[in-house]
Amino acid sequence: MDALILSRIQFAANISFHILFPTITIALGWVLLFFRVRFNITKDERWLEAYRFWVKVFALSFAMGVVSGITMSFQFGTNWPGFMETVGNIAGPLLAYEVMTAFFLEAVFLGIMLFGASRVSARVHTTATFLVAFGTTMSAFWIIVLNSWMHTPQGFEMIDGVAHATDWWAIVFNPSMPYRFAHMMLASFLTVSFLIAGVSAFRWLIGGRTEGVRVALKTAVFGAAMLIPVQIFVGDMHGLNTLEYQPQKVAAMEGNWETDTNVPLLLFAIPNEELRENTFEIGIPNLASLILTHHADGEVPGLNDFVADDGTALHPRVAPVFWSFRVMVATGMLMLAVSWGASALMLRRNADRTGRRGVEGLPKPVLYGLVAMSFSGWLATLAGWYTTEIGRQPWLVQGVMTTKQAVADVPAGMVASTLIAYLVVYALLLAAYIAVIFYLARKAAKGEPIGPNVPQSTKAAVTVAAE
Amino acid sequence: MNTFGDPTVWLPFVFAALMGLSILIYVILDGFDLGVGVLFPFANEAERDRMVSAIGPFWDANETWLVLAVGILLVAFPAAHGAILTALYLPVAIMLVGLILRGVAFEFRVKAPTPWKATWNRAFFVGSLMTSLSQGFMLGMYVMGLTWTLPHVGFALLTAVFLTVGYSFIGATWVIHKTEGDLQRKAVDWAKGGIWGLVLGIGAISAATPYVSDRIFGKWFTWPEALYLSPLPILSGVLVVSLWLMLRRMPFAEDRYSWAPFAAATGLWGLAFGGMAYSFYPYVVPERLTIYEAASAPESLFIILIGTCIVLPTILGYTILSYSIFRGKATELRYD
C-alpha cells in the first residue's frame, strides 16, 4: 500500500475514534445542565443522583475526546501538509476560532464543573455546566463550518494556486453548513439518549431501581422518541442539499450508474466499479426518484456523468458509500421503532387507572433491547460520516483540490508503523471505555459510592480529609 | 489595516510573538503536570492520589495551550507547520500516543476496577515520560535545524533527557506549592535532584545554538549586543543559585514562600525561552524559512487577530479564575 492510502486509513482511524466522544459530550453537556437545573428548581434528589452518575461518564468521554482531538491538529501537518498550504487561509481562521472560542472555554470550566461543586455556589456551578455545554457546541459549530466548506466551498478566490478569502459570511454560512450542523447536533442527542437509556436499563435489570435511574431512563427514551422523527426530516433535507451541490455523492449513495427518471430505491445491491453496473440488485420501483425529487418520475443523477475525458472517475468508490448510507438509515429506523415502542409501553395506564406504568411498563426483552442499543448512536453517526466523507472523494475540497494533492511525502513504512500503533492504542482504549462505563453502572446499582475521584479507603486520604 | 505599516511585516511578527507566548505558557503549565507524571514512580500510592489532586483541575486547560501553539503554527505559518511536522513525524507520533495515554489515565485510574489502578498508574507515568522525552527530542532536533544526522540525533537524545528532568523539576516545585507534610519534604528532595536537568539543558542549548549557526553566533557575540544580552545569563545564574539555596532550607516555617520555587522555575524557563526566541528570529524553520516567508495571507491573519484580541484576555481571565478557585493546598477531588 502507498503512503496515500495508508495516510487516509490513519486519518480515518483517528477521526472515527475521535468523533465517538464529542458525539457523546456535545449532547451530554446539555443533558447534564437539564438534570442540574431540574434539581435547582425542584430540589428533588433524584435529578442530582442522575447528574452525579452521568457527570462521570462525561468526564471520561471528555478526556478521550481531548486527547484524540489533539492528534488531529498535528496530523494536518504530519500527513496532509498540502491541505493547509492550499486552503490554509480559509481553514486557518476557522480552526483558530474553534480553539479560541470553544476549546479553552470547555477545558477551563470543566475543572470547575467536575471538582468545584463544593467550592463555588450552586449558581456558579450551574453556570460552569452551561459554559461547558456551550463550549462543546461551539466547538462542533466551527468544525462543521470547516467540514461543510470542504463539501460546498464558496466565498474565496484562487491566486497562484492558493485560496484567499473574499467573503467570510459566505464561507461560514456555506450551503451545506446549516443542514450538516443540525444533522450532527441531533445525532449527538440521539446517541446520548440511547446511551443513557441503555445504561439505565442495564442498571434497572441488575436491580439498581433507584429514582435517579428512573428519571434518566424516562428522559432518554422520551427524548429519543421525540428527536428521531426530526432527525429523519433533517436528514432528508440534508440529502436534497447534497443532491443540489454534490450529485455524484447522491448517485453513489443510490448506487445509480445512469442518469434516469423513475429510479428505484435499492435495498440491496453489489456495485461493480469495473463493469460500472450493479451485478445484483433488489429495489422498490420509483422510490429513489420520489424521495429525492418528491416526484415518482423525477430525474436522479447517475455516476457515469462524473467521468473525466481520460476515463478517470470523478466520483467516489460506490460500494462503501452505498453501504454506509444503508447502515445509517437502517440504524435510524431501528431507533425509531425501539424508542416509539418503549415510549408507548411506558405511557400505558396502570391496571387500576391511577397513573401511567412508566419504567415498570417495560418488559424484560425491551430492556435488554435498550441495553443492546446503548451504542447504536455511534454506529449511525460513523456510518453517516463515512457516507458524506467517502462520498466527497476524490476531492478533499470539492472542485478545488484532490486528496492526493494534499498528502505528505512521508515513507509508507513510517505511516504504516504509526498507524499500527494508533490502532492498538485505540482498540485498547475503546474496550477500557466501554468496560468502565458498565463497571460504574454495576457499582452504582449495588449502591457503592463512586463519588470521590480519589478512593477514600486509602489511609492518608482519610487523615488529610480529617485535617 | 495599514495603520501600523506594512501588514505583511507586522502581522507575521505579532503571530510569531503570540505563538512564542503560547509555547512558553505551555511548557510551564503542562511542564509541571507532565513532571508530576514523571515523578510518579518515586511516590507511594497515597502520595500519587495527592499529586493527581494537585493537577487534576488544571491539566486539561494546560494542554490546550499546546493546541493553541500548534494551531497558530498551522493557521499563521502553514508552510512551516508542514515542514516542521513532517520532519518530526516519528517523535510527534510518540508524543501523541503519550498524551493520549496520560490524558485518559487521569480518568481511568480512579474509575476502573481497583485491580486495574496499578496499570493505569503505569500508563500515566509512561505517557508522561513519552511526552516529555519526545518534546525534548523535538527541541533538540529543532535547534539542530531539523536534519536527521547521527550527531544531531545524539544531541536530541541528550536534550530529551534534560527536558524530562527539567519538567520533573518544575513538577516538583508545583507539588511543593500544593502539598504539605511528608510529601512536600519529598518534593523538595525531588526538586533538588532535578535542578541539574534544567541547568544542563539550558547550558547545552545555549552552547550548541551558536555553534550550529554562524548567524546566531554573530547575534550573541558581537559588541555591543553582547552587553545588552548579558542580563539574560546573569539573571539565570542568580535564579539557579537562589533556587538552590532556597531548596536546601525548605520547607520554611508556616509554609512561607512555598510558591517561590515554582515562581523562580517559571522565571528561569522564561529567560531560557527568551534567549532561544532571540537566537532563531526571524526564522520559524531554522535557517530555511522566515516567519515572513511562511505566513498566511494578511487578510486571513487579520481576521484571526481580531478574534485573538477579544479572546486571549478572556482566556487569561478565566484561567486565573480557575486557578484561584482551586488555590491553596490540593484537597481530595470530589464531584459533589
UniProtKB/TrEMBL annotation, chain A:
<feature type="transmembrane region" description="Helical">
    <location>
        <begin position="53"/>
        <end position="74"/>
    </location>
</feature>
<dbReference type="GO" id="GO:0019646">
    <property type="term" value="P:aerobic electron transport chain"/>
</dbReference>
<feature type="transmembrane region" description="Helical">
    <location>
        <begin position="128"/>
        <end position="150"/>
    </location>
</feature>
<keyword id="KW-0408">Iron</keyword>
<feature type="transmembrane region" description="Helical">
    <location>
        <begin position="323"/>
        <end position="345"/>
    </location>
</feature>
<feature type="transmembrane region" description="Helical">
    <location>
        <begin position="366"/>
        <end position="386"/>
    </location>
</feature>
<feature type="transmembrane region" description="Helical">
    <location>
        <begin position="94"/>
        <end position="116"/>
    </location>
</feature>
<feature type="transmembrane region" description="Helical">
    <location>
        <begin position="215"/>
        <end position="234"/>
    </location>
</feature>
<keyword id="KW-1133">Transmembrane helix</keyword>
<dbReference type="Pfam" id="PF01654">
    <property type="entry name" value="Cyt_bd_oxida_I"/>
</dbReference>
<protein>
    <submittedName>
        <fullName>Cytochrome bd-II ubiquinol oxidase subunit 1</fullName>
        <ecNumber>1.10.3.10</ecNumber>
    </submittedName>
</protein>
<keyword id="KW-0479">Metal-binding</keyword>
<keyword id="KW-0472">Membrane</keyword>
<keyword id="KW-0813">Transport</keyword>
<dbReference type="GO" id="GO:0009055">
    <property type="term" value="F:electron transfer activity"/>
</dbReference>
<feature type="transmembrane region" description="Helical">
    <location>
        <begin position="419"/>
        <end position="441"/>
    </location>
</feature>
<dbReference type="GO" id="GO:0046872">
    <property type="term" value="F:metal ion binding"/>
</dbReference>
<keyword id="KW-0812">Transmembrane</keyword>
<keyword id="KW-0560">Oxidoreductase</keyword>
<comment type="similarity">
    <text>Belongs to the cytochrome ubiquinol oxidase subunit 1 family.</text>
</comment>
<keyword id="KW-1003">Cell membrane</keyword>
<feature type="transmembrane region" description="Helical">
    <location>
        <begin position="12"/>
        <end position="33"/>
    </location>
</feature>
TrEMBL record, chain B:
<feature type="transmembrane region" description="Helical">
    <location>
        <begin position="87"/>
        <end position="108"/>
    </location>
</feature>
<protein>
    <submittedName>
        <fullName>Cytochrome bd-I ubiquinol oxidase subunit 2</fullName>
        <ecNumber>1.10.3.10</ecNumber>
    </submittedName>
</protein>
<feature type="transmembrane region" description="Helical">
    <location>
        <begin position="12"/>
        <end position="43"/>
    </location>
</feature>
<keyword id="KW-0560">Oxidoreductase</keyword>
<dbReference type="GO" id="GO:0005886">
    <property type="term" value="C:plasma membrane"/>
</dbReference>
<feature type="transmembrane region" description="Helical">
    <location>
        <begin position="228"/>
        <end position="247"/>
    </location>
</feature>
<keyword id="KW-0812">Transmembrane</keyword>
<feature type="transmembrane region" description="Helical">
    <location>
        <begin position="155"/>
        <end position="176"/>
    </location>
</feature>
<feature type="transmembrane region" description="Helical">
    <location>
        <begin position="301"/>
        <end position="326"/>
    </location>
</feature>
<feature type="transmembrane region" description="Helical">
    <location>
        <begin position="259"/>
        <end position="281"/>
    </location>
</feature>
<dbReference type="Pfam" id="PF02322">
    <property type="entry name" value="Cyt_bd_oxida_II"/>
</dbReference>
<keyword id="KW-0472">Membrane</keyword>
<keyword id="KW-1003">Cell membrane</keyword>
<feature type="transmembrane region" description="Helical">
    <location>
        <begin position="120"/>
        <end position="143"/>
    </location>
</feature>
<dbReference type="GO" id="GO:0070069">
    <property type="term" value="C:cytochrome complex"/>
</dbReference>
<dbReference type="GO" id="GO:0016682">
    <property type="term" value="F:oxidoreductase activity, acting on diphenols and related substances as donors, oxygen as acceptor"/>
</dbReference>
<dbReference type="GO" id="GO:0019646">
    <property type="term" value="P:aerobic electron transport chain"/>
</dbReference>
<feature type="transmembrane region" description="Helical">
    <location>
        <begin position="188"/>
        <end position="208"/>
    </location>
</feature>
<dbReference type="InterPro" id="IPR003317">
    <property type="entry name" value="Cyt-d_oxidase_su2"/>
</dbReference>
<comment type="similarity">
    <text>Belongs to the cytochrome ubiquinol oxidase subunit 2 family.</text>
</comment>
<keyword id="KW-1133">Transmembrane helix</keyword>
<dbReference type="GO" id="GO:0009055">
    <property type="term" value="F:electron transfer activity"/>
</dbReference>
